[in-house]
Design goal:
- This protein has about 375 residues and is an alpha/beta fold.
- It folds into two domains: about 20-40 and about 280-374, Aspartate Aminotransferase, domain 1; about 45-275, 3-Layer(aba) Sandwich (Aspartate Aminotransferase, domain 2).
- The protein has 14 helices and twelve strands.
- Strand 5 (about 160-165), helix 7 (about 175-185) and strand 6 (about 190-195) form a beta-alpha-beta unit.
- Helix 6 (about 145-155) packs parallel to helix 7 (about 175-185) and helix 12 runs parallel beside helix 14 (about 360-374).
- The relative contact order is 0.16.
């Protein structure tokens, strides 16, 4: 019975252009270009980082051996948390197995203390899932709409936390974080930030949107940084005030009941953090590429989101068209994968173009040429 139900469901998704599948991405062939990777600073093959990972696996065990609250907390984990705390100017940090697990845990913490959560409508699925699974009370405001935020704050309960992303993963738009913090403070509320796509790119030394707006842990008591983006790895870290980090440690089931990331990987991430902080030249080149891309859009007949980040959203409004365009690009050795419901709305369905440091202006020219042909 279940087999038939599953088959019917898959067939329905295929007919609607919403069926997902895994595909081995190969851009190693001559001329191949990847416009779907979150490796913004192109650090995944950095020789010093690769060497640090090799040193980590020579020095530490491959696996952590358990949860961080049992026997899986190693000296490299502690060193990584301390390094991030020092860099970000916060009291403490907590390493998680993934950004998804971290956001589930943060939402669970808020729900545990009966906090009303006010979220930007466009926040990541992990935040929505965390709210749903924890049973948290929440409301939404229109994406980056400060007038709607003001309306929501007027009627928000006393115990309210606002949650936003520094840079939004689908549209590439940046949150007006300074304004949001000021508005929340005026009502006695708190702002928490998902820095997954802003860390490494924004602010002094690439330390994120909170740093970009010169805010502190007094303004933003918790921020989540995923290692799978600019840090070119996996896992995540939550940084903030001591009281908040301790409360998270006590309640975060995804932390308590998950095996810790490899201590060897934590050692490699220490070097990655150092290189991210010293990558201003990479950030400058990437900023130039974004500017060139935005200039190229002016001659494009297609509909694009208004973004000043490396994430550029092509809005096609049709899943079948998005799939077809992605296939046409692959015929030209260009990887640019479609984003469809429920990840984005029907209107926003299309291609998400992500610029990396290793791209060149010629790659952008080629992309637009192939989009015209598609």
């Amino acid at each position: 019975m279940l087999t038939e139900i599953f088959k019917h469901s898959s067939d329905d998704l295929i007919q609607r252009g919403l069926h997902r599948k895994r595909a081995v991405i190969n851009v190693q062939s001559p001329g191949g270009i990847n416009f779907s990777s979150n490796d913004y600073l192109s650090l995944s093959s950095h020789p010093l980082i690769k060497k640090a990972y090799q040193e980590g696996f020579e020095r530490y065990s491959c696996g952590s051996g358990g949860s961080m609250v049992v026997c899986g907390y190693h000296s490299s984990h502690e060193a990584l948390e301390r390094a991030f705390a020092e860099a970000l100017g916060v009291d403490d940090c907590l390493v998680f197995p993934s950004g998804y697990a971290a956001n589930l845990s943060i939402m669970g913490l808020l729900a545990r203390f009966n906090t009303h959560v006010l979220i930007d409508k466009a926040v990541h699925a992990s935040i929505y899932d965390g709210l749903t699974l924890s049973g948290a009370q929440y409301s939404r405001y229109l994406h980056n709409n400060l007038s709607h935020v003001a309306q929501k704050l007027e009627s928000a309960p006393l115990n309210t936390a606002m949650v936003t992303e520094g840079t939004f993963s689908m549209s590439g738009q940046c949150a007006p974080l300074g304004d949001l913090v000021d508005m929340a403070k005026n009502h006695g509320h708190t702002v928490l930030v998902d820095e997954a796509h802003s860390f490494g790119l924004l602010g002094r030394e690439g330390l994120g949107a909170v740093a970009h707006y010169q805010l502190t842990q007094e303004d933003v008591p918790l921020r989540m940084i995923a290692f799978g983006k600019a840090c070119a790895s996996f896992g995540a870290i939550v940084a903030g005030r001591a009281e908040w980090i301790d409360a998270l440690l006590q309640s975060a089931r995804a932390h308590i009941y998950s095996t810790a990331i490899s201590p060897a990987v934590a050692h490699g991430l220490l070097k990655t953090l150092d290189i991210v902080r010293h990558s201003d030249e990479r950030r400058r080149k990437l900023t130039g590429l974004v500017h060139y891309f935005r200039e190229s859009i002016k001659a494009s007949p297609l509909r694009w989101s208004d973004s000043s980040s490396p994430i550029q959203q092509l809005q096609l409004g049709c899943p079948e068209r998005a799939l077809l365009m992605a296939e046409r690009l692959q015929e030209h050795a260009i990887v640019c994968l479609p984003m469809r419901e429920p990840t984005v709305s029907r209107v926003e369905t299309g291609l998400r173009v992500i610029l990396n440091h290793d791209h060149e202006q010629e790659d952008i020219d080629r992309l637009f040429q192939c989009l015209d042909l598609a």
